[in-house]
Every structure is written in structure tokens, then in C-alpha cells.
Amino acid sequence: MVAAATSTMQDGTFLTSVDFLNARFVPTDIPLKPRLNDQRFYHKRSRRGSVVAFETDKWPQGRIPYILSSAYTTSQRAVLARAIAAYSAKTCIRFVPKQETDKDYIVISKLDGCYADFARVGGKQQVSLADECVDYPTVIHELMHVIGFIHEHQRDDRDGFVRIVWENVINGANTDFDKLSSVGLSNYGETYDYFSIMHYESTEGSKNGKNTIEAKATAFTKLMGKSTDFTRGDLNRVNRAYKCYGKMSY
Ligand SMILES: [Zn+2]
Fold it and tell me: What are the Peptidase M12A domain coordinates in residue numbering (predicted)?
């Protein structure tokens, strides 16, 4: 791994070609860690589905300007580059260095744990990736919130696929298991996906080690929430929401 020459901008930096070269050595096949309370909603509105539906909530042309805190190490920058390169390879979403003319943008920094503002908020919005969050699947997951994904197990049709075991959920984590049912979201033709990168695993947020989520198809209970990357269903939803198909060469 080569030391990254960083380009600076205000109090932050952008990823460099060296970071993207280092990204090739980043492991991706690692388990997700718990990420309770990591999706933050600025605009209260009705939702139905799993992915943002209104054009006003999306990032125009899938272009997401970013500023990166200068606090990340060379190896952490490589992880971030790996995730951003994966979006570029598999979708038409582009995380691009913020230009002066960009009014809506994300700031990626080590604030307080792992979380991201949901969809395009307007103006500056935050992605917090503290040290414990800088691994490939977690970065992919948090950036999915940025482009407009909720958690899979919070879809309004989830009751047909999973059961929430409320008595095992730690106090204060209830909102991570609430069903989000209203308008403003779409599933873009994708059925419930136990393997989505946006699904929690069965014991996440548990106060006693017992399951908080159980699959109706019981064989999936142990398997769900263990993805280390986008599923085909995740990619279909990204690419349909952002009208990527036809723009991509893969
Ligand atoms: Zn999340």
C-alpha cells in the first residue's frame, strides 16, 4: 500500500488515484457489524416500499458530491475508495468531489458511530463513519441510505416475510425495527430480499442474545443480514430508481 497524496479542500479532502489503487487490496468479504440507529430522516413523510420514489429526494443524475474528512488513515481511505468504486462499477451512482457550484453534498467524517442521512436532504448532509465503521460492507450500507434506501426489514410488506420479536429488542432501539409504511418509497419491482445489504441479522439490537427478527421462512433466520456486498435485488433497485439501465456498459 502506498501513502496517499491527499488533495485538500476546506477542512476536508478528496480521494485520489492512489487511494483507488490501494483500494484493490481492501478485503470485502467481511461480516457487517451492528449499526443500530444509523438511518436519519430529516423530512417526515409517508413511505411505502424500500427505496426513495420522489425525484426531489433523489440525487440528480445519480451524482453525489462529497467532501471527505482529512482524519482518515491511508488504509481507511482505501476502504472508502473501494466502496465508491463498487458503486461506479455496478451502478450509475457517482460520488464526485464537491465543486464550488454544488449546493447539495455529503460530508463523510468520524462524528459519532455509523450513520447517514436518508436520501438527498438539501444543502450539506452528514455521513458519520467512525473508525469502527470503516469496513467495506458498512460503507456500502451507509451510502445506500444516502442514495435513498431504508432498512429492508422495515419495508411496509415485511410482515409477510419476517416477525419482529419485540420483547428481545433493547430499549431505545425500537425505531430500528418499526415498519415504515407510507408513500414516498418504491420497491422498484423487487420482492423482499433477506440477503439485502440493508437487512439486519437475526440478533441485531438484542438485549438478551435471542432473536429480534425471525424469518417466516425459518431457514432464512440464520442467513439474513449476513451479506457482505450488494445483492442483485439491491442493484436492481438502485439502477431502476436512478434510471441507470441503458447508461451502463456492464
Ligand atoms: Zn442502516
Answer: 50-245
User: 72-123, pLDDT tens digit by residue?
Assistant: 999 999 999 999 999 999 999 999 999 999 999 999 999 988 999 989 999 9
| Known binding residues for Zn(2+) | 141, 145, 151
Specify the CATH class of 17-39+47-242 in words: alpha beta
CA 128–ligand 1 middle distance (angstroms): 12
Question: 61-70 pLDDT, tens per residue?
Answer: 999 999 999 9
Q: How far is the CA of 37 from the centre of ligand 1 (A)?
A: 7
Locate 27 and state its grid cell.
478485503
Domain ranges within the chain, ordered by starting residue: 17-39+47-242
pTM: 0.90
Which of 226, 159, 166 is CA-nearest to residue 197? Answer: 226
Residue 22: burial class (beta carbons within 10 Å; 0-12, 13-18, 19+): buried
Pick the catalytic residue from 55, 100, 142, 152. Answer: 142
